[in-house]
């Protein structure tokens, strides 16, 4: 039995709010930095600086994709998409991860291999590169600080550590900005080291090594973000703490003898679909069962606001086919 109120427009968490501010700040910063690095790379002839320019171009494209994700994922459910558009945030964030690898990492690898295996390149005007790297570090720190503030605030709201939040959060936008800004700061240090060693040793080998290291760094960030968004797109279970709380709450319902099965899936940021198969008391009439389902639906929505759709299905606990499906999925029957 399914009970839910009529569809209403429900803005995606973070859309138009702090997540949007974080992404907009990162976009403006990365666009300015990309231009500065490109000019400095051409003037200095540094492979690491050119790699960092490609890095910033990739970051700028990433922020544009994230803004698209925030805008499109907040659309309300309709006839063609009855569960809403929340998963679009995961799709566009996955494209952002691909952008980081294709536009940033591969370009850095090309520049690095060209410097390591190609003809030696004479370094010119390293001072320009140092100034641009310093300005870039200062600007990136502004964007990074905003991302850190949001990560800390949202992690504290969930009662999680920062590492747990980054691993389990269903909002890929803030995670993407945080990781790419962290990678940007590390990349700037690598570029500074490469240019400095090139100037000190008069060998462009170090410039190329720094560029390759930047490529590896970006490939790692792209892999982490890609894997995260793939899991969310496929359909990840809600946080285990929420699942346990839902199980406990449903088991405490007077009309419920046993929670037979509990299925959850993230359908967007702060949006959870719940399907609960419940063995109700056999003494209930059909009318009593209907009233109980409506009451439980309302109580769950009041206690767990992240629940977007709720389906309550009355089932017998000893049905062999249902037990077999639950055993195949979990290896045990819930609360047996």
Automatic annotation (TrEMBL):
Q: How does it sit in the membrane?
A: Multi-pass membrane protein
Q: Name one GO cellular component term.
A: membrane
GO biological process entries: zinc ion transport
Q: What are the recorded GO MF terms, alphabetically?
A: monoatomic cation transmembrane transporter activity
Which keywords, in A-to-Z order, does the entry hold?
Membrane, Transmembrane, Transmembrane helix, Transport
Report the residue ranges that make up the Cation efflux protein transmembrane domain in this protein.
23-233
User: Which superkingdom is the protein from?
Assistant: Bacteria
**InterPro entries annotated for this entry?**
Cation_efflux (IPR002524), Cation_efflux_CTD_sf (IPR036837), Cation_efflux_TM (IPR058533), Cation_efflux_TMD_sf (IPR027469), SLC30A9 (IPR040177)
Query: Which Pfam families does this UniProt record tie to the protein?
Result: Cation_efflux
Check the UniProt entry and state the signal peptide residues, or none: none
NCBIfam families per record = CDF
- Its name, as the record gives it, is Cation diffusion facilitator family transporter
Q: TM spans, by residue?
A: 20-40, 90-108, 128-145, 177-197, 209-226
Compartments, record wording: Membrane
């Amino acid at each position: 039995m399914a009970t839910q109120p009529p569809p209403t427009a429900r803005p995606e968490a973070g859309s138009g709010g702090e997540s949007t501010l974080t992404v907009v700040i990162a976009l403006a910063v990365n666009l300015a930095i990309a231009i500065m690095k490109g000019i400095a790379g051409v003037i200095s002839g540094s492979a690491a600086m050119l790699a960092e320019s490609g890095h910033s171009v990739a970051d700028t494209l990433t922020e544009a994709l994230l803004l698209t994700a925030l805008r499109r994922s907040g659309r309300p459910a309709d006839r063609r998409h009855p569960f809403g558009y929340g998963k679009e945030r995961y799709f566009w964030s996955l494209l952002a991860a691909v952008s980081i690898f294709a536009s940033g990492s591969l370009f850095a690898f090309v520049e690095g291999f060209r410097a390591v295996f190609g003809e030696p390149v004479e370094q010119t005007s390293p001072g320009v590169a140092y100034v641009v790297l310093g300005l870039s570090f200062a600007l990136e720190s502004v964007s990074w600080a905003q991302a850190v503030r949001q990560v800390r605030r949202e992690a504290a709201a969930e009662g999680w550590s920062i590492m747990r939040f980054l691993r389990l959060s269903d909002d890929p936008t803030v995670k993407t900005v945080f990781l790419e800004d962290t990678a940007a700061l590390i990349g700037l240090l690598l570029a500074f080291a490469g240019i400095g060693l090139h100037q000190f040793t008069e060998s462009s080998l170090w410039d190329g090594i720094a560029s390759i290291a930047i490529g590896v760094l970006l490939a790692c960030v792209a892999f982490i973000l890609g894997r995260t968004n793939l899991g969310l797109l496929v359909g990840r279970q809600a946080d285990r703490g929420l699942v346990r709380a839902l199980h406990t709450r449903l088991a405490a319902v007077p009309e419920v003898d046993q929670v037979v099965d509990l299925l959850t899936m993230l359908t967007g940021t702060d949006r959870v679909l719940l399907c609960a198969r419940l063995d109700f008391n056999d003494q209930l009439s059909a009318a009593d069962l209907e009233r109980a389902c409506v009451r439980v639906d309302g109580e769950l929505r009041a206690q767990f606001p992240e629940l977007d759709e709720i389906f309550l299905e009355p089932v017998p606990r000893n049905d062999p086919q249902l037990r077999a499906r639950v055993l195949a999925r979990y290896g045990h029957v819930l609360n047996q």
